[in-house]
């Protein structure tokens, strides 16, 4: 109410320009607030570096080093000048394996998250918006998936389906959406109770209009936060499944490294250099995603940001 | 300065001998906020003797609540208080924490705003009234010496004082009506026999009839127990009904102070005049069809001539029934056989208490609620039931909601909010031009300046204009407005009402205005329909219904208005004659 006297006096050229100008301003505001959170910025920097390295792996390293038959070193070598992180049971460089493993771990984590958040958002919005029997059916299905032990379901799925990255992504995505659906449903319900939804209906707006113009823009920030937090758990799930030997046997991931390390007795041989790098990789990436997610959450979810609160 | 004025008033000379209960001297309150310092109270002088009642009037944000809360040091930590607040000669600002605790409730207590939320929903009201008794004792009795039986007796006594049966002590807040909850709040405030009671908007959420009862009760209790009362409200007529003196605040300063009658009848300061004019007096020709806007812009309006049966009604409800099924099989008959017509170029006021089915009727007329039986006709045609037909219908009949703050999506700019209807109906040609046109019809000028503004940057009145502009963009023939000014400040009310009148005169837009305020009906409506428990008990031209009410319910509504005594007497006389 303080700025009523002088509203911005630059008239916009078109309606779309207006919308984009506002979105840019909103994004800039989010970024400014995000930048004040040190943990979040640190997480973002770490993530950026890891993603960059993973994407550039084919350009920076020699892929032939991953081939067991052409392993450059002797088995179980301790870290040295030649192999900074030592070698595994076949003589391959652990540094190279960890580097390439980041690719699979990140890919599976992100893809599974997209799947999970996508299903969760659609189910959540539909359950809240349509109400009645649609809501009942969707909620019972959600509850069903919520009470299933997701690891067991993922295990079964990846055993039944042919082994490969797609199966892992599907297994994680299909088991992790119920919490997102519940969250989105709750948020949609609060948005739909607002009088501006009633106004929109009185203007003649149908389901598509109400969901597209009012519900989704209000729900998406929350979904976005949820995504960053889900990535972390998806990466852990991927590692778990790979560690249990259900991953893609043709590709290296951090989970499959841990799997072969334990399979070939890295612990009894005292080969700590084979266990620590993939384990620390998982920890660092998960931590980075969680830091980013928490920082975003305080920016985008006004209920958590008490001082900044929604005006 | 205030003391000098006070001494010059004859009312206060009698009381001058009484000891001063509260003395506020040159009080300044500043808030530190992210956007700099806000100077909420600027040098206020105020005094109150015991047994006196003072009304504090002003718009939201004028600092009246801040002033009242500073008396008990209930302000947030970000505030800085300068000046003196003497309670019984003792400065509240320098009291020790323990002394302050003792003074709170035992010396001075508060009836908080919004009784609905100030009670703990999971505790019986008896326990909640007993809480301050256990902490402070009463009448010189130390809390340690109190037996449970004594406390129970005191709670029963307090409930009796506020005219609630003593057995209601076992009730939970949700089992009580709004008025009963407010009575419980008053009982709590009186529990420890304080010498000063501060009531912050005690009747805001209450109906006219309940409000009258609560005000009467407060006035009586204050007189009986010789308590000093400070009552805060934005409604001058409420204050005039209970208080001896009224002080008007504007932007943190006291601009006028004097006996209630004088402030109400002959306001000196321009702001007081605006406040007094915002609540029109039923029966006063000066307020008939003349909303309190600046005289230059007020439209000259002749009462609509189309209110008879001569023209074809644009909107017509025929024997409309709406029933809601309850969870336990019980049914609510929200609308019970309503027949109502809205003619072109006419404003109809739908008046009734909350829960009388007004809003359900409006939603049914808009096609947002399916009627159980009966029909709605628009322009002689029955209301379509298909989604497509309803969408076309909604170009013609538009809704204006009560609270403009929540009726606008906070993420959308003014342009998008106004253009929303155009986009839904795919009216693509010259969108910007139509939006600008609608905004200037709603008197937001120049319209281009408001395009990119977000709702939170606007004042309450401007937001309501945006909502109205959004409705006007579709060139509707009827506006249905649900309490369009109830959540607005007094000085803005008149402007928005003037806008409705002007739309009727200049564009011929008919309106159905839902309200609980008979003064508003007198102010702008051509015809008035009184709704009671789902039925229309009285429909007719405003002058007929409000000046010579036939139905007892209309009479009790009129009698409950905290208005000038003149009109009240007339109503009572009329009621007496008829009865």
From TrEMBL, chain A:
TM stretches of this protein: 39-60, 104-130, 215-237, 271-293
Chain ranges of the ABC transmembrane type-1 domain: 102-293
A GO CC term attached to the entry: plasma membrane
Residues in coiled coil: none
Keyword Cell membrane: yes
Keyword Transport: yes
Keywords: Cell membrane, Membrane, Transmembrane, Transmembrane helix, Transport
One GO term of the biological process aspect: transmembrane transport
The protein's name: Peptide/nickel transport system permease protein
Cell compartments where the protein resides: Cell membrane
Family: Belongs to the binding-protein-dependent transport system permease family.
Membrane topology: Multi-pass membrane protein
From TrEMBL, chain B:
Protein name: Peptide/nickel transport system ATP-binding protein
SUPFAM superfamilies: P-loop containing nucleoside triphosphate hydrolases (SSF52540)
GO molecular function, one term: ATP binding
Keyword Signal found: no
Highest taxon in the source lineage: Bacteria
Keyword ATP-binding: yes
One GO biological process term: peptide transport
Keyword terms, alphabetized: ATP-binding, Cell membrane, Membrane, Nucleotide-binding, Transport
Start and end residues of each ABC transporter domain: 22-276, 315-558
UniProt xrefs under InterPro entries: AAA+_ATPase (IPR003593), ABC_Ni/Peptide_Import (IPR050388), ABC_transporter-like_ATP-bd (IPR003439), ABC_transporter-like_CS (IPR017871), Oligopep_ABC_C (IPR013563), P-loop_NTPase (IPR027417)
Membrane topology designation: Peripheral membrane protein
UniProt record similarity statement: Belongs to the ABC transporter superfamily.
Subcellular location: Cell membrane
Any one GO cellular component localisation term in the record: plasma membrane
